[in-house]
Amino acid sequence: MKSYNDLPLICADKYYDMSFLCSWSGGKDSCYAMHIAVKKGLQPIVLLNVLNEYGDRSRSHGIPKEILEAQADAMKLPIHFFESTWNDYERLYIESLKRLTDTYNLKSAVFGDIDIQSHRDWEEKVSNAANLKAILPIWQQSRKQLVLDMIDNGIEALIVSCNNILGPDFLGRKIDKKLIEDLEALGVDACGENGEYHTLVVNAPLFKEKLRVNVVGKETSSNYNFASLKLL
């Protein structure tokens, strides 16, 4: 059988159930993966996000829960959260996948990873544990071209956390072609796939309305910079 990425748009429903869960970080990669899955004819049903152990922001990107909820509202989709430390992450992730699979009768889960094999291995592992097919719509595509495609497809995103190679001045910057030039001048991957930076999507084709979010402060923790965000 051909890989999912090779399937023509009209044939997607011949190989996979039309409905899917999206592993939602709030950032550009998961958003674009869902965008591509929808273009292939699949139907997003629910979002899944992991919060820190305090339940106030996302485990991976540090995005406040209320902003993640606003993103889901903008797409008219439910979003499921669970709180976790890194130690309990996998166990609780599988439990949530199983629960949502039963609730929504899901057959597949969409992820936004690009080319780190260990990430894909983990996503296939947890999906298999919940009897789901892991789908990675942007897998093994050019990192830089992906960011350019995101921009061209109307995905608007801001840097909300970054390492010290970039530093706090990059927080709040919009993902655009000038930013890509600045990243490359610093020797930083244009897509940030290695964790150099993380983003918050404020608008996309799947959004019914644009989010209004301001950076109201900046903080550093464990040699990583985070934007303090306020939803307007």
UniProtKB/TrEMBL annotation:
Gene3D superfamilies: HUPs (3.40.50.620), putative n-type atp pyrophosphatase, domain 2 (3.90.1490.10)
CDD domains registered for this protein in UniProt: AANH_PF0828-like
Biological processes, Gene Ontology terms: protein histidyl modification to diphthamide
Organism superkingdom: Bacteria
All copies of domain Diphthamide synthase, residue ranges: 22-230
A Pfam family: Diphthami_syn_2
GO MF term set: diphthine-ammonia ligase activity
Name of the protein in its database record: MJ0570-related uncharacterized domain-containing protein
